[in-house]
Design a protein that fits this description.
about 240 residues; Rossmann fold; two-stranded parallel ribbon; Sc_DH/Rdtase_CS; NAD(P)-bd_dom_sf; EC 1.1.1.141; SDR_fam
């Protein structure tokens, strides 16, 4: 495997690459500093990956923030960049465009499947990720893109985003409810990122998964959201 890491934080990106370099050959990873909200930077990052590795097989759109105060930025990072990253991935991977096929995994949240009190904009973006990914997955199947698209919806995970709950500059008018959110975290449990990675590998390796919504919780582990209605499809023109 060869992996490209994208992050706005150069220091964190270089540390991640260094950790991988200790286990694998250095040329098998590349770090590209990129602000996913900058359209040209994101396009350039995809181009650099192709130039470095020669091909693209897997895209994981997982940039995310929790910021109810600067809610426009939350939409840009959590939803707009996921849509743009998906379209860029399809541009390089879909078979009708000269690609070899592949898989795109968009990271949503359990907040994309239910209301999230005190985080309404975050909740809206995660609902959007699910709706977009499920819809484009149907299109990809109908149009024979050769690309599978799926969503992962984790519960609370032990990553830096949880620290935003304690910050007024993130929570804005909902800052006074931070203890209620912490109580929810304690009730539902906080997971180690490794179980999310396990779910990710499952989606990458199982060629039958397309348009699926994988849920990962502390109580039930890895399982899938069940939908009663099959999305409408028509025969290809």
């Amino acid at each position: 495997a060869q992996v490209a890491l994208l992050d706005r934080n150069s220091e964190a990106g270089q540390e991640s690459k260094a950790a991988l370099d200790e286990q694998f050959e250095a040329q098998r990873t590349v770090f590209i500093q990129c602000d996913v909200t900058d359209q040209e930077q994101l396009k350039g990052a995809f181009k650099k990956v192709i130039e470095h590795f020669g091909r693209l097989d897997i895209v994981v759109n997982n940039a995310g923030v929790n910021n109810e105060k600067d809610w426009e930025s939350t939409i840009q990072i959590n939803l707009t960049s996921v849509i743009r990253g998906t379209y860029l991935g399809l541009e390089y991977m879909r078979k009708g465009n000269g690609g070899d096929g592949g898989v795109i995994i968009n990271i949503s949240s359990l907040a994309g499947l239910m209301p999230a009190a005190f985080q309404p904009v975050y909740c809206a973006t995660k609902h959007g990720v699910i709706g977009f990914t499920r819809s484009i997955a149907v299109t990809a199947n109908m149009e024979n893109y050769g690309v599978r698209l799926n969503t992962i919806c984790p519960g609370f995970v032990n990553t830096p985003i949880l620290q935003s709950i304690d910050k007024e500059e993130n929570m804005g008018q909902y800052y006074s409810y931070k203890d209620e959110i912490k109580n929810m975290m304690q009730f539902y449990g906080v997971m180690d990122p490794s179980i999310i990675a396990e779910g990710l590998i499952t989606i990458i390796e199982d060629d039958s998964l397309n348009g699926e919504v994988m849920k990962i919780t502390a109580s039930q582990g890895i399982h899938f959201q069940q939908y009663s209605q099959t999305p409408f499809t028509s025969s290809k023109r």
